[in-house]
User: Which sequence fits this backbone?
């Protein structure tokens, strides 16, 4: 129930300010590490309350996100303060790449930039009502996203420190705000003129501020952003500018001058205190946001919480036993499927992250093969920390906590049974054993696969290629040392055969050990006949190794030599095109291929959109692939307008008649869904024309 002072304030005169409904919608995206680093160079820290207030000057703030690797020790304490100010922290993990001879972690400067830019573009398409995009960063890399947003009719405002702002970015955006001049001025600002009514209206507002603080959860303090929202709810068309204050914080400082409250900045946000409250230092007094962060930093020690964590450990242990690796998203999806904890996806993801931070899981680098390009990459995965007390207690005493029921993959497989029946009819056939091994490999049953491969070797001891199959399976099972030893043994038995050297070179290459792989790949080329179907494939692998070693001259030499043999070899032509690209284009192409490899995988739609959007940010014209992948993803989500837009752009960039026919066929179906029959008929005519052209060829 409102007090008398509240009712009086509601009667303040209307100064014809626009209502909330009439204001434009605004999105705020913060490159947190960039702005924090820029300000720390001058002994400053970002004030998120002031950043939010600056954004709200442009309209109704409907999206507010800050991007960083929140596991970085320097940034780890910031998310609670961002949440307190109504800004969502978005975790962008450090990207990991294989270094020469080892897998080493390495920061990638534009990881946050790409994620932030991709989300901007996704927001532009998904929420067309947002007219203003505010980016907090002085990084010139954001020129690309600015150039994409503005043609859609979006106003782009950038906030950054004046001493580190990119001149190129300054010339591209619609408006620039300098943090140290426009958001939190370093020089004292002149006091506003005294109100014409003697300050009576202000005193009534300040009395209401005191009431708001006392009615709040903390009783003696409140965030300035919360106070501002409460005033907007209690006073019709409230606007601090009516009273001569350019910023809401300046209005609160006037309340402090008059003795109503005290204002202080703790934990990157602004607080208002009642006058009797002692303002302790951040070290002496943990503010509520910090206390909440501390509560979240470690799992609750209650019996119920311990039971739930044990439940997750049991479940993760089962996943590790049946899978080559477990990524965060895979663990999350499987937990949702099995009903672990029965929480919404975002809450479950937050809870798992908290448990990871508590040390129950380890983040590890795992060598993998890119599904789009076939090239080796390193991905971030999770493993249970089997030295952690909770893990030891749970797995050492599995009955102490009820585990989620987990259903292993079915033991019966019709294809495998048929293959084994054929093998039983001819057990001395080496090829039959290899066929059985292939099926076991598809089922990730490596021990059985190895057993049949070794029987094939015993039946055909003079066939070195059978031995290379054994080595590759050992590597796929993660037994790298055994795979290397087996290859070396095979090389000694067959010194003039190229295949054992090729197998060892590929195993080392897939581990990111490019320098070690190179001599074996060269040895394989020397021994492989030029008329062999494998020769150009060996050339392609060798060229990739030179590329990953940073030797573009060596890569170019191998590519040109291979193309002299076959000028139309797809793999070598692709590598030659790569040589002609700049660094941004190279990364964009890799992201586009990654996105294309995810088409049709329902569980990876969000990742697909992220990769495709990131590729477009880096180079909008790199290929039709990212647009085609986006179109397929939006189709899966039944976002037909976005799908049509993406597929139209894919068609504009595709020059392959067969692929173009597929794109227009998809467009026909999308336009039919949208009941735009004129566009559907136009797409159908193009499908028929391309079909005729292909038949002629």
Assistant:
């Amino acid at each position: 129930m409102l007090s008398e002072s509240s009712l009086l304030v509601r009667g303040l005169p209307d100064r014809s300010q626009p209502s909330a409904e009439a204001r434009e919608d605004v999105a705020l995206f913060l490159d947190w590490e960039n702005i924090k680093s820029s300000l720390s160079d001058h002994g400053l820290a970002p004030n998120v309350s002031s950043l939010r207030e600056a954004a709200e000057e442009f309209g109704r703030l409907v999206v507010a996100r800050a991007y960083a690797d929140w596991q970085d020790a320097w940034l780890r304490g910031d998310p609670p303060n961002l949440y307190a100010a109504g800004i969502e922290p978005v975790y962008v993990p450090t990207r990991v790449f294989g270094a020469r001879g080892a897998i080493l972690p390495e920061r990638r400067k534009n990881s946050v930039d790409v994620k932030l830019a991709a989300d901007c573009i996704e927001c532009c398409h998904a929420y067309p009502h947002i007219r203003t995009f505010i980016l907090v960063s002085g990084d010139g890399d954001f020129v690309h996203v600015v150039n994409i947003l503005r043609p859609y009719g979006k106003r782009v405002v950038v906030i950054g420190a004046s001493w580190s702002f990119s001149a190129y970015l300054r010339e591209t955006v619609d408006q620039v705000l300098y943090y140290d001049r426009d958001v939190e001025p370093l020089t004292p600002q002149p006091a506003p003129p005294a109100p014409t009514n003697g300050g009576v209206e202000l005193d009534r507002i300040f009395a209401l501020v005191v009431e708001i603080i006392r009615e709040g959860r903390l009783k003696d303090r409140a965030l300035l952003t919360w106070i501002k929202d409460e005033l907007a709810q209690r006073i019709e068309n409230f606007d601090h500018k009516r009273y001569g204050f350019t910023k809401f914080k300046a209005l609160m400082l006037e309340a402090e001058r008059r003795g109503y409250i005290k204002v202080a900045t703790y934990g990157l946000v602004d607080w208002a205190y009642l006058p009797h409250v002692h303002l302790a230092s951040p070290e002496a007094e943990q503010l509520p946001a910090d206390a909440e962060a501390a509560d979240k930093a470690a799992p609750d020690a209650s019996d119920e919480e311990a039971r739930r964590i044990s439940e997750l450990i049991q479940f993760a242990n089962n996943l590790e036993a049946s899978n080559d690796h477990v990524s965060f998203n895979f663990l999350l999806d499987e937990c949702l499927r099995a009903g672990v904890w029965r929480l919404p996806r975002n809450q479950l993801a937050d809870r798992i992250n908290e448990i990871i931070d508590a040390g129950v899981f380890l983040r590890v680098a795992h060598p993998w093969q890119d599904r789009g390009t076939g090239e080796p990459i390193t991905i971030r995965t999770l493993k249970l920390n089997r030295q952690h007390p909770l893990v030891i207690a749970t797995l050492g005493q599995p009955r102490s906590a009820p585990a989620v029921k987990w259903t292993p993959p079915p033991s019966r497989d019709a294809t495998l049974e048929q293959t084994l029946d054929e093998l039983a009819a001819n057990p001395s056939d080496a090829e039959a054993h290899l066929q059985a091994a292939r099926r076991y490999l598809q089922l990730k049953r490596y021990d059985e696969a190895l057993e049949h491969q070794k029987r094939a070797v015993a039946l055909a001891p003079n066939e070195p290629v059978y031995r290379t199959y054994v080595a590759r399976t050992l590597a796929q099972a993660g037994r790298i040392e055994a795979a290397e030893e087996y290859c070396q043994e095979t090389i000694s038995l067959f010194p003039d055969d190229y295949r054992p050297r090729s197998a060892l070179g590929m195993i080392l290459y897939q581990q990111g050990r490019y320098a070690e792989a190179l001599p074996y790949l060269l040895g394989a080329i020397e021994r492989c006949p030029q008329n062999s179907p494998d020769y150009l494939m060996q050339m392609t692998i060798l060229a990739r190794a030179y590329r990953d070693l940073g030797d573009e001259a060596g890569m170019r030499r191998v590519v040109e030599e291979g193309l002299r043999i076959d000028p139309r070899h797809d793999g070598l032509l692709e590598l030659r095109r790569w040589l002609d690209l700049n660094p941004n284009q190279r990364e964009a192409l890799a992201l586009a291929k990654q996105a294309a490899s995810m088409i049709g995988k329902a569980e990876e739609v969000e990742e697909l959109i992220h990769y495709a959007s990131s590729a477009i940010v880096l180079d909008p014209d790199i290929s039709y692939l990212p647009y085609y992948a986006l179109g397929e993803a939006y189709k899966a989500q039944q976002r037909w307008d976005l799908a049509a837009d993406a597929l139209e752009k894919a068609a504009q960039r595709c020059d392959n008649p067969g692929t173009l026919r597929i794109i227009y066929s998809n467009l026909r179906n999308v336009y039919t869904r949208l009941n735009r029959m004129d566009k559907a008929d136009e797409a159908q005519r193009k499908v028929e024309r391309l079909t005729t052209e292909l038949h002629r060829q």
